[in-house]
Amino acid sequence: MMNPIKVDVQAAESFVPPSAWKEAHTQALEALYTLKEGRGAGNDFLGWLSLPKTITKLEITQIKEAADDLSRAVDVVVVIGIGGSYLGAKAVIEALSHSFQALLPQRERPLVLFAGQNLSEDYVSELLELMQGRSCSCVVISKSGTTMEPALAFRVIKKHIEEKYGKTEAVRRIAVVTDASQGILKRLSDGEGYRSFVIPNDVGGRFSVLTPVGLLPMAVAGVDIEALVAGACAQMTYCLEACLDNPALRYAAARNALHRQGKLVELLANYHPKLHYLTEWWKQLFGESEGKEGRGIFPAGVDFTTDLHSLGQYIQQGPRFLMETLISIAQAERNLHIEADTLDLDGLNYLSGKRIDECNKMAELGTLMAHVAGGVPNIRIEIPKLDAYHLGALLYFFEVACGISAYMLGVNPFDQAGVEAYKKNMLNLLGKC
Ligand code: PA5
Q: Is 288 considered catalytic here?
């Protein structure tokens, strides 16, 4: 079977001398071996590599049952978490939901809203306001169980739910995803008797989307998590294979080869607003995994065509330190043809009979050609359609590519010591003893 993920580096090739391409591929292959054989830095955090295969039917069933319990006769499920405990679920739910989900008069599943991903008083207050007149439940996710943002949000939302429904019913309406044995959240959860799920010890936050961290909120939102895991599972064959056709290896090699030619920033470009949070997830995955010891490709995101009318000018003619990676969806879900108009006052009749997606695709191709001509190399990643299976495939593909790429850069992909700096200052400033 053909791999549904296609990585095309043709529009990047002329930016790198052939010998440098070869060298990057050889190093990518070595990095893949290092990753697979667990010989690299952070090798006690490689559980994510086999997750799509090791997750059992029983675990999936338990996640779905919990999701159904939390959703029963509920309008809003608040999912609390930050970073890796937030972005994977947010990315998948946004990508697979109706663009105007919150405004639909009829919904089969509750609305999933997120909290604990910021410290904005307005955000939390307005969320509480929204929860007032609605039936709600909550999932709180934190591996460490000590992160300030989700801990604070949970304190507020737990109180709200307890006051509204009473202690006993609150226990039914709250679920926890955290470490198996450590952390304040674990202790709190055991004390209150909440239904809880475990984040495996050997899986770090930003690699945890295929654990209950991602799967429980997704199941609440009605995502087909079995298909998502199946898509990821199929990629294990392609992305762990030691050959130059391996898409993760090709992508990691290309971005590092370009980086060595002075491309310091990688823009992940999409042409579908639903993919905005996939880019946010990708930014965290690569940013937190690679940005250390003075190294790393800066991951940035652009939503096209929207951002062509804001950042397009800079990309086309600004300083030449950018590379672009395009996520292309071959087939749009919907089908909307442009109709002819008798008067043609807007002069758009030349488009009649075409689909809007065709215009989007031509914008995509035209932009790629323009950017390459302007000195921005392009890597093109294509998936056939935006569904759970292919999203699962894409998530796993990016995770493996990230592991390979970070090892090529010579850093440990699985730590994030730098994140502590702001936390330390904030806690000191807040007077924590
Ligand atoms: O990737 C990571 O490890 C981080 O982004 C964490 O997910 C994030 O800091 C949240 O941590 P925790 O789940 O411990 O609250």
A: yes
Q: Is the CB–ligand 1 distance for residue 143 below 6 Å?
A: yes
> Can you say how many angstroms the Cα of residue 92 is from the centroid of all Cα atoms in its chain?
7
259 is catalytic: no
Exposed (0-12), middle (13-18) or buried (19+): which is 61, by Cβ within 10 Å?
exposed
Residue nearest to atom 12 of ligand 1 (CA): 142
The per-residue pLDDT string of the chain (433 residues; one tens digit each, 9 = 90 and over) reads 789 999 999 999 999 999 999 999 999 999 999 999 999 999 999 999 999 999 999 999 999 999 999 999 999 999 999 999 999 999 999 999 999 999 998 888 999 999 999 999 999 999 999 999 999 999 999 999 999 999 999 999 999 999 999 999 999 999 999 999 999 999 999 999 999 999 999 999 999 999 999 999 999 999 999 999 999 999 999 999 999 899 999 999 999 999 999 999 999 999 999 999 999 999 999 999 999 999 999 999 999 999 999 999 999 999 999 999 999 999 999 999 999 999 999 999 999 999 999 999 999 999 999 999 999 999 999 999 999 999 999 999 999 999 999 999 999 999 999 999 999 999 999 999 7
The reported pTM is: 0.97
Are the C-beta atoms of 81 and 71 separated by less than 8 Å? no
Quote the CA–CA distance of 303 and 275 in Å, as a whole number.
Answer: 8
CB of 150 closer than 6 angstroms to any ligand 1 atom: yes
Is ligand 1 within 6 A of the CB of residue 186? no
- Give the number of the atom of ligand 1 that is nearest the alpha carbon of residue 81: 15
